[in-house]
TPM domain-containing protein
Amino acid sequence: MSYFKSKITAFVLATTGLLAFKAETAFALRIDLDRPGPNEFVRDLAGMISSANEAEIKKIAGAVLKDKATPILVV
């Protein structure tokens, strides 16, 4: 009897987990942003990044783009 209880418990837990995961993805928000321009590395729509930090991010992202051909965008 305990074998069947453990199987049923495992099934119920797996089903509950799957349903919880599906419900969370169903309520995910979609945020649409405009495509960044060339060499635009910072898109601070909330105004949370100081101008000094923005300049540092642009400097680092520009160097990474030049050295590794990998664009970085901070949103």
